[in-house]
Specification:
Strand content: 35-45%
Keywords: Hydrolase
Family: Belongs to the 4-hydroxybenzoyl-CoA thioesterase family.
Order of helices and strands: EHEEEEH
Number of strands: 5
InterPro entries: 4-hydroxybenzoyl-CoA_TE, HotDog_dom_sf
Helix content: 10-25%
CATH class: Alpha Beta
CATH topology: Thiol Ester Dehydrase, Chain A
Radius of gyration: 16 Å
CATH superfamily: Hotdog Thioesterase
Protein name: Thioesterase
Distance between the termini: 14 Å
GO molecular function: fatty acyl-CoA hydrolase activity
């Protein structure tokens, strides 16, 4: 995917799955805005809700997900108090990995975007293992909207 063909991750209409997180006072820094480390926590909130929801956990027994790569784009500062909405969608699907994207929105404005490469790994060997058909189906259903 080239820069010209990359989707506009700041568009909330592209996301299928949503989570919400609270902007905490303890996440503010000396400048008075939400610290950049909190952005990674917001992405985690969206990712965990999508992948590990106890009612509908995506990985089969004996496997786990690991982040191989994460890119985070800070677009605007966030001020406390408030909440952030996290949009999550699938960007690509490989043999044993896939890429999730997130859009972080406060009061309808995109404040950050993220791409994460996630690998399915075997608990015993600690090595990558092929995605199951069930995982592929769920990831396909959550593909970024055109």
């Amino acid at each position: 995917m080239t820069e010209e063909t990359k989707p506009d991750l700041t568009n909330p209409d592209l996301y299928h799955h949503w989570a919400t997180d609270v902007l905490r006072y303890c996440d503010t820094d000396q400048q008075g805005h939400i610290n950049n480390v909190a952005f990674t926590v917001f992405c985690e909130t969206g990712r965990v809700k999508f992948l590990l929801d106890p009612k509908d956990k995506l990985n089969p027994p004996g496997t786990f997900f690991v982040i191989a790569r994460m890119v985070l784009n800070f677009l605007r500062e966030i001020m406390w108090p408030g909440e952030v909405r996290i949009g999550t969608a699938t960007l690509t699907i490989g043999r044993s990995s896939f890429t999730l994207v997130h859009g972080l929105f406060v009061d309808g404005t995109c404040v950050g975007t993220s791409e994460s490469v996630i690998v399915l790994a075997d608990e015993t060997t600690r090595k990558s293992t092929p995605l199951t058909e069930a995982i592929r189906q769920r990831l396909t259903e959550a593909m970024l909207r055109p």
